[in-house]
Design a protein that fits this description.
CATH superfamily of one domain: Beta Polymerase, domain 2
Low-confidence stretches: none
Number of helices: 20
CATH architecture of one domain: 2-Layer Sandwich
Distance between the termini: 97 Å
Shape: elongated
Bound molecules: adenosine-5'-triphosphate, magnesium ion
Largest sheet: 7 strands, mixed
Mean pLDDT: 94
Length: 407
């Protein structure tokens, strides 16, 4: 059989990559590209990060990179990973390894010089493809090439065992399934994921959240998320999952395509949850989501059901993204185009009336000024942001009302 060769691709010509590879040249057949870079290049997809495997020990990697004038960062030195930073790019260089002990969360590793051994501790067959940078020869120890061709996602070895070693692989399974799994679904693997789902509670919340947001951020995560729901994958860490989460997510993703209007990750996430700020807050706290995401949940939920008239008010109170998301999530079909149009080419205005003007109109200095400004702002927003002349009228009215109340 003629060996398969890695097609040429732009990332292979990045400045600095050659010098990294030259620094790591050795007698063990390395360095080699591995993982996503090989997989995605074989599929003709763009590659954003390049992982490199080497038989050299981590300290040797650091010494050689530094001797070549390349910055070496010991990002995960205890499990053998050194990052080479060169010409604005990072390359993750990991020493060949063998897992000597696993507990479902992390592995204790021993370094190795055997490529097949290194391949066997990787998660899926399509993620265990290596390529020689010089010849382009692809090394495939677990039939990853034919799986890739058939769009088949397969655990290396026994799915139950591989999941028990590291429960994060359950979520990785559904992520890679959404990305590559157009082929037949492997019922045994799904079953192993379902059986191991309880183990997800052993993982840190941050790792769960990271994988989940990666899944939700994919172009079309719907089928994969639906499988996750059907197999109880969310149960251990997301009791706030809405009953109709799959339908809501599907509806949102279809809408995005229909209106060529992508939404934020925050919106994708919200589509899964039972409606309400209390539930969203609980999720944000449990999964330690960013404050931005947590506040983003609240902004969109507060927006309620937008009507064409208040969509700019949502943008004003939060931001344009929140308003757009609220439309995509909660507006009824016929209102979507008009709502989106009202947001397009519109800059969020500022109220032109200032406190000083209110005092000139007769308001006493003090807290009443700020309160009155707020009242004016509320009317101005409710009237859909009229111009300065109308703002002045609103101000005169508001000042009058306050002064008559003060009498
Ligand atoms: P991406 O395009 O998402 O970066 P990738 O395949 O490069 O895809 P990474 O998370 O960058 O994924 O990991 C690089 C490689 O390391 C994987 O291809 C896989 O071989 C291995 N790997 C990563 N995480 C695990 C894990 N939890 N269990 C086993 N192998 C893993
Ligand atoms: Mg990668």
């Amino acid at each position: 059989m003629t060996p398969v060769r890695l097609p040429d691709a732009e990332w292979q010509h990045a400045d600095g990559l050659k010098s990294v590879l030259a620094a790591l040249d050795d007698v063990y057949g390395g360095p080699r590209y591995v993982g996503g870079a090989v997989r995605d290049t074989l599929l003709g997809l763009p590659v954003s990060d390049v992982d490199i495997a080497t038989a050299l020990l981590p300290n040797e990697v650091i010494n050689r990179l530094e001797a070549a004038g390349i910055k070496a960062i010991p990002t995960g030195i205890e499990h053998g990973t050194v990052t080479a930073a060169v010409a604005g790019k990072n390359y993750e260089i990991t020493t060949l390894r063998r897992d000597v002990a696993t507990d479902g969360r992390r592995a204790t590793v021993a370094f190795a010089t055997d490529w097949q051994e290194d391949a066997s501790r990787r998660d899926f067959t399509i993620n265990a493809l290596y390529a020689d940078p010089k010849s382009g020869e692809v090394f495939d120890y677990f039939e990853g090439l034919s799986d890739l061709e058939a769009r088949r996602l397969r655990f290396i070895g026994d799915a139950n065992q591989r999941i028990a070693e590291d429960f994060l692989r359950i979520l990785r399974y559904f992520r890679f399934l959404a990305r590559y799994g157009g082929g037949q679904i492997d019922g045994d693997a799904i079953q192993a994921c379902a059986a191991g789902a309880h183990g997800l509670t052993a993982l840190s919340r941050e790792r769960i959240a990271q994988e989940l947001t990666r899944i939700l951020g994919l172009k079309d995560p719907v089928a994969s998320v639906e499988l996750m729901i059907d197999n109880g994958i969310f149960t251990p860490f997301l009791p706030e999952l809405a009953r109709d989460a799959a339908d809501k997510l599907r509806h949102l993703v279809e809408r995005e395509a229909q209106f060529a209007q992508p939404v934020s990750l925050t919106a994708r996430f919200l589509a899964l949850l039972t409606r309400g700020i209390v539930a969203a807050d609980k999720v944000a706290a449990r999964l330690k989501l960013s404050n931005k995401m947590r506040e983003g949940f609240a902004q969109r939920l507060r927006a309620g059901v937008p009507i064409p008239f208040n969509v700019r008010a949502i943008a004003y109170r939060a931001d344009i993204d929140a308003a757009r998301d609220a439309v995509m999530l909660y507006a009824v079909d016929v209102q979507v185009p008009e709502c989106l149009a009202r947001l397009e080419q519109w800059d969020i205005p500022t109220l032109s009336i200032k406190g000083g003007e209110l005092i000139v109109m007769g308001l006493p200095a003090g807290p009443v000024v700020a309160k009155t400004l707020q009242a004016i702002e509320t009317s101005w927003v409710a009237e859909d942001f009229p111009d300065a002349a109308r703002q002045r009228e609103l101000a005169v009215q508001a000042v009058k009302a306050v002064l008559s109340g003060l009498d």
